[in-house]
Amino acid sequence: MVNPDPLLRVEDLKVRFYTLRGVVHALERVRFTLNRQETLGLAGETGCGKSVTARSVLRLIDPPGKIISGRILFEGRDLLTLDEATMRTIRGSQISMIMQEPKMSLNPVIRVGDQIAETLLIHERSLNRRTARARAVDMLAQLGIPDPARVARRYPHELSGGMAQRVMIAMMLVTRPKLLIADEPTSALDVTIQAQILELMKKLVREIETSVLMITHDLGVMAETCDRVAVMYAGEMVETGPVRSVLKNPRHPYTQGLLQTVPDKANPEHPLYSIRGNVPSLLQPPSGCRFAPRCEYAMQRCHNELPPYYHLEGDHQCACFLHAEKAEVIRP
Question: Domains in the chain, please, with CATH?
């Protein structure tokens, strides 16, 4: 059932990059909603547009990129219509983002406690530096960091990868944002640290009552952390729905293929599945369904027409002509 008052609603988002080689059609008709206190996973292989979607929400698409059209409604306000000064008040305070490489995002010449405190001072002008630093140390403690006061005095290069990621999470959550965008937050960590970071994130998100847009290519992470999932392919949404429904009963051929690529732990000697063909160039994307050149079920119309989104069951939607006879079209 559609929530009439989601925290975030993205409608028909289109993004282009104007390069010397031509125009890259990075995002096309991207649509999704994120409800309050919900975790939505953006899944798909590298280069499918997950990070571009996230950066579009924060209006961080730099030249030669440009948001061509669409709406990004945050609490009912279209972020694409706001001036830059207003957007700066929203970034960091109401919407925060954890980047993929924490050590690349931290300033190497400033102690990590001062960097967290600075985030507070920017968005809460009534605070003094001592109070901000105390809250920074308290946030590190909430993330399970031993001796947080000592860690706050360290520089980024003195931290391990897992510790740096905890510092980044502390920096993004210390202002208690309404929306947290997590861009591959555990991709550079080993499996044990991954599990710890994800568990800490889930705990803090529950306590702060924050919604999360989780970007990942790891289906295990998605299954563990997300309530709903949106699967992307070549800059388009191909399937959305509750995470259990999508994982147990995928309805788009690309989602089915993506799930088959996961190694079978019960049969470790079984050959790994690979989706045939290659991802199309976004300089000249296919005129119909972008997955059609690789799809074993493709019909002639798939190569010529854009498939609409079909309503399957509950909140499960899919953009594929295979459902044309049995499902209702909900949007072109």
Answer: 8-94+177-331 (3.40.50.300), 102-176 (no CATH)
